[in-house]
Amino acid sequence: MSVVSVSFLLLACDYSATQQTTPVPQSTAKADVTIEITNDGFNPASITINKGQTVEFVNRDSALHWPASAMHPTHSEYPTTGGCVGSSFDACHGLQNGEKFVFTFDQIGTWKYHDHLNITKFGSIEVK
């Protein structure tokens, strides 16, 4: 096995472990907008908010859902770092039914997001 193959395997194992074990504290911020996550996806999938507003993602499904910045799997589209994979706009784990992820958008732009556990579910948030 080459050094490159071994390095890739170690990186993949480390990435997988990080995804499953990094806890993210629940914010106590009051949400300006709530996006519900169901079996059908995000509702509403696209919204427009002002800079500094807070969005709450709440799982209303029996399956786990993991809201995170686009693009899959790097979660790096939103420009601030600090999440478990890429951007700080990342729940860092699958949300249980009723569990919430709250995020304050402090960067102007249009930010795409997805469900890391079901990449066919996605949306966008325009921040003015």
UniProtKB/TrEMBL annotation:
- Among the Pfam families in the record, one is Cupredoxin_1
Sequence ranges assigned to domain EfeO-type cupredoxin-like in this UniProt record: 20-115
Where does the source fall among the domains of life?
Answer: Bacteria
Give the protein's recorded name. EfeO-type cupredoxin-like domain-containing protein
The positions making up the signal sequence are none
Coiled coil where? none
